[in-house]
Amino acid sequence: MRRSVPPALLPVVLTLAAVAQQPAIHRLDGSMIPAAEVDATVTRLMKAAEVPGVAIAIIDHGQIAFVKAYGFRDVEKQLPLTPDSVMTAASFTKSAFAYMVTQLVSEGRLDLDKPVYKYLPKPLPEYPAYKDLSGDDRYQLITARMLLDHTSGFANWRSFEPDRKLRIHFQPGTRFAYSGEGIVLLQMVVETITGKPLEKLMEERVFRPLGMTRTSMVWQEKFETDYANGYDEYGRSLGPQKRKSAQAAGSMQTTVHDFARLVQAVMASRGLQKKSLDTMLSPQIRIYSKHEFPSLATETTHDNDAIRLSYGLGWGLYWTPDSKVFFKEGHDDGWRNYAVGFLRPKSGIVIMTNSSNGEGIFKELLETLLKNTSTPIAWEGYTPYNLLPPRPPMPKHTTVHVDSSVLDKYVGKYKVPGGPPIVLAIQREGDHLTVQENQEPKQNLVPESDTQFFSTVADDVYRFEVNGRGQVTAMILHTDGRDIRIPRQP
Questions:
Q1: pTM of the full predicted structure?
Q2: Domain residues for 59?
Q3: Burial (CB count <10 Å: 0-12, 13-18, 19+), residue 379
Q4: Model confidence pLDDT, tens digit, residues 195-207
Q5: What is the pLDDT, as a whole number, of residue 291?
Q6: How far is CA 362 from the centre of its chain?
Q7: Residue 118 to residues 114, 140, 207, Cα–Cα distance (Å)
Q8: At which of 362, 387, 412 does a domain end?
Q9: Domain tally for the chain?
Q10: Is there a domain that residue 242 lies in?
Q11: Exposed, middle or buried by CB within 10 Å (0-12, 13-18, 19+), for 346?
Q12: Which residues of the chain have pLDDT under 50?
């Protein structure tokens, strides 16, 4: 059964002084919703769905008319979420990246239909991250258009493949299959063309011109005064994501107000030529998949024919009787985000949450705050919180004491085989270990035997493999019902 939220964790509301007196908002059906009803709706849903923090920005006839944050950015310290709290954008990053790429297209620096390998100084399979494509010449068909509209044939992430290798699953350009891998490939191409790192390109071309002053592709020291922790389904803190390297598929950190500025700019064709905007928001591929994820599932449906569900360049698209609509989701552990914009009457909403439970409130927020009843909720996999099955109980573990000399044996780096470098760093901190995957937040690992440890913020279990000479050779990560053997680096 779902847990009750203690009174001390009931959401609090904080607004910017400049928007302390929020006006009533026009909804898509012409009705008005007063600020008090927005507040009541959000706080009720947060409590019911166990979401620590929600930030909302509403665009009304082209203007950012409402910005407000609810709940906590740090539950443990009782720090309130604010409209300036930096949050993980997750896949919102892809749309911001597509906005920048579309600028390069309008300048003639990138041709959407030129195979991307032709922009690189050597064949794609000669790059270590793409060696798996050797022997499959279909990579020569992949264009920037296919990478932005998710028709490259790649899995979402190669780490989801049984052997963790990158492969092309279908003829590029023939069907939609959402892929972060495709966006990462385009990042490499764009950095090659421009001779600039992605972090600098996004700052120069997107964030600074649009006034997104608390947005970056990597963590900034200025974020330290006001940032949010992510929380899993059980309310366990996952901390912030302090990325040190830029990744076009998901490293962006932003605020709800800043991302609303990007949505507003797309509506107004700001920073883009009108022709380029039309291309970005034109259907590149019709979508007939039953669900967006798993991305390679082959089940089809005509359930979304009425709204002409499609994908443009970096944005999903659909149509209502009155407007073309663009939208984007953001999904990462501890973070759930949603943005949608209606070109007529230039209205929309940005929702950012610091909880894995956040998607459960999207449907009611969209329908109540905007009167938007056309969202392809089922395709996106957004089950309302009150229709979810009971949450499985957290696994039970028994903590034991392990001598520090044993813990020290496990300290080191372990590299996941295949694909781009994923390194898990194991360190000892007092009577337990910590694990850190690349730049992700550290997790505490608590011993339940001399060789087996459990994460305090996830359901992952780590077991260390020791050979007959007492040498640690690998660790076995049990996650999502499978075991992954990760060799120790020399």
A1: 0.89
A2: 7-98+195-387
A3: buried
A4: 999 999 999 999 9
A5: 98
A6: 15
A7: 7, 8, 29
A8: 387
A9: 2
A10: yes
A11: middle
A12: 1-20
